[in-house]
Amino acid sequence: MPIRITGMNSGLDTESIITALTQNKKDKVNTFTGDQKKLTWKQDKWKELNKKVVSFYNGTLSNMRFGAAYTKKVTTASNANAVTVVTGDTAMDATQNLSITKLAQAAYLTGQEVKTAGDKRANKNTTMEQLGIADGEQIKFQIGSGEYIKVDLAASDTIDSVLSKIRAAKSVDADGNETGKSLNVNFDEGNGRFYVSSKEMGEDASFSFVEDAGITATMSKLGLFAKDTYDGNGNKVGSTYQQGSSAEIMLNGEIYKSNSNTFQINGLTITANEKAENITLTTKQDTSGIYDNIKKMLKEYNDLMKEFSTLYNADKAKKYKMLTDEQKDEMSDKEVEEWEKKIKDGLLSGDETIGNIRNALKEVMNSTFDVTTKDGKTSKFSLASFGISTGSYFSTEENERDVFHIDGDKDDSVSSGNTDLLSAAIANDPDSVQKFFTDLSNSLYNKLFDMMKGTQYSSAFTIYEDKLMASQYSAYTTKISDAQKALEAAQDKYYKKFSVMETALSKINSNSNSMASFFGGGK
Question: How far is Cα 186 from Cα 225, in angstroms, rounded to an integer?
């Protein structure tokens, strides 16, 4: 905006006069700007609310439509120290007998102390030449059946560089094709020994020594050979080499083997921890798991309904108008924040869309569904059939009236003292409970799907008219621009008029001064 200097001849406060004359147009700019800002706040509230609804729709509610959410099973073991069992959905309800006869272990070699020709303990800087090893000699391990790891040595190699070579070496088959297996290896300077182990447990990953006199001699100089120990009677009691072995269990008379200590058998993941016999495994329905899933779904539903109610029943805050920049300048930051919070809290008060969603969901939750119980009879069931209901209308806070409570739920002060019908129903007839809640979840899911269909005013998976609001935002931008142009045009018009007046007054004053000078000069 150009700099205007006015009132120099008239002495009038033309800025204030023009501001007053164009105030109605300034008010339009402020109104449209405030309305656009309020729309932005409303969009933000809807985005946040929509995110929660879609999360419930795609997550818990979607899962509860399928049997997997109810077929929770658990397996207990008579010897929990010896075995750990994870139960899959496909596991059969059964009692089984388990014996753990062997545990899987990795091959392991504790090397012998390595000494130089001078009978000094070797360290990582010791060279092969100092150990009596010449260029071209090899160390070699057999991996599993028919695979080998070999390393070519040089007299100048140090123990440290040999470590690197062994670690980098990959197994090859009899034809020289790389098969990719490797070994763990370390050298402890404090003891002057190599330590070697296979990277995985089981027979297939186990390593052993190659029967070759030249290679054996070389490896012996590095302490890489097995040494057996014996008791006073000449009985072998141990060895520095432990061969890798697979785990073995017997389940219901059938033998199973695994390269690890874990077995996948008929829906059960069985991990053997120690040898043991005659372990009883009992697999059955986990009624607490079913209960927890139902409780989780109801909690998420309740949280949504409480938020809907809080927004819908909020004070409209009609006396709180959007603040102009001039009004904000006269207030503290805290006062502005509290003022705007009042407006934000009431943005969705009495909102028709929220009202429609609440009513639609409540209608589904109050529905009945045909359920065939285990005695073959078909009856109509509702949430109340399982001791699930909302609180008393008059004794419940306004925003809590759509919330469902489970009788006997220890975490719910409203209903914890009532008889737990849900747990009893799950224990007595879990299939009928599953049938009811899958039907209920499907109905809720389909209702939300219908309400989130894309239209000309809303995008898909959106419960509010986001497209319409975006269009309204653009319309406000145009209105603000037009109103601002009209304000500036009106201001320019008045400034021009006052400028003409000031010019005329300037001429009059100039002429008056000239006359006064003329007459004054004739005396």
Answer: 15
